[in-house]
Automatic annotation (TrEMBL):
<feature type="domain" description="HTH tetR-type">
    <location>
        <begin position="6"/>
        <end position="66"/>
    </location>
</feature>
<dbReference type="InterPro" id="IPR036271">
    <property type="entry name" value="Tet_transcr_reg_TetR-rel_C_sf"/>
</dbReference>
<dbReference type="InterPro" id="IPR009057">
    <property type="entry name" value="Homeodomain-like_sf"/>
</dbReference>
<feature type="DNA-binding region" description="H-T-H motif">
    <location>
        <begin position="29"/>
        <end position="48"/>
    </location>
</feature>
<keyword id="KW-0238">DNA-binding</keyword>
<dbReference type="GO" id="GO:0003677">
    <property type="term" value="F:DNA binding"/>
</dbReference>
<dbReference type="InterPro" id="IPR050109">
    <property type="entry name" value="HTH-type_TetR-like_transc_reg"/>
</dbReference>
<dbReference type="InterPro" id="IPR041467">
    <property type="entry name" value="Sco4008_C"/>
</dbReference>
<dbReference type="InterPro" id="IPR001647">
    <property type="entry name" value="HTH_TetR"/>
</dbReference>
<protein>
    <submittedName>
        <fullName>TetR family transcriptional regulator</fullName>
    </submittedName>
</protein>
<dbReference type="Pfam" id="PF00440">
    <property type="entry name" value="TetR_N"/>
</dbReference>
<dbReference type="Pfam" id="PF17926">
    <property type="entry name" value="TetR_C_21"/>
</dbReference>
<dbReference type="GO" id="GO:0006355">
    <property type="term" value="P:regulation of DNA-templated transcription"/>
</dbReference>
Length: 193
């Protein structure tokens, strides 16, 4: 029977997503990833190199999924509140995603996984926002890149800083909810129009 390399890689990536989301790149263990995937841990080294390269591959894969699921076209950029709501919905459905990004930030040392691709992706979002600013549908008081960053940060904070929701907005603090989403969408619309 032939070895199914693609399936093996996917099993390892799926297990690595869970491990890295739970423990971060420092606390994650290759042995636990292999055990969770039901694959010999040597395959991780064969396919991904080392743990750091596996973490970079996981980030790249998960970022591609998020980018495909939550696009920001020039037409959609006219309502950054709606974009924030869609990003919120993605995080709600994929709670590991914000944790992976938070771990990446905590371990940031000047290098970013898939930097060229991510920069190109964010440049497209910035261009869409710039277009909406030039058409007058969004405020041009702030740099387009700063607006995109603010929307991403505000959205992710509901998932990475739940204690602030508890302390500052107790009515909306009971986990991902319609109230949190509504608050976020309203805030972003207020800030950007």
């Amino acid at each position: 029977m032939a070895w199914d390399t693609a399936r093996t890689k996917q099993l390892l990536l799926d297990a690595a997503v869970e491990e890295f989301a739970a423990y971060g790149p420092e606390g994650a263990r290759v042995a636990r990833i292999a055990t969770r995937a039901g694959i010999n841990k040597e395959r991780i080294y064969t396919y991904f190199g080392n743990k750091d390269q596996l973490f970079a591959t996981v980030l790249d894969s998960e970022l591609q999924k998020a980018a495909a699921a939550v696009p920001l076209t020039p037409e959609q950029a006219a309502d950054l509140g709606d974009f924030a709501g869609r990003v919120y919905d993605y995080h709600h459905r994929h709670p590991h995603f914000a944790r992976l990004l938070a771990w990446e930030g905590l371990h940031y040392r000047g290098e970013v996984a898939a930097e060229r691709e991510r920069t190109a992706h964010y440049c497209e979002k910035i261009a869409a926002v710039t277009g909406a600013q030039q058409s007058g549908t969004l405020t041009d008081d702030l740099d387009a890149g700063a607006l995109v960053r603010a929307v991403i940060a505000l959205t992710a904070s509901w998932f990475t800083l739940p204690q602030l929701a508890h302390l500052l907005t107790p009515a909306a603090a009971k986990g991902p909810s319609a109230a949190q989403r509504e608050l976020l969408v309203g805030l972003v619309r207020h800030l950007t129009t």
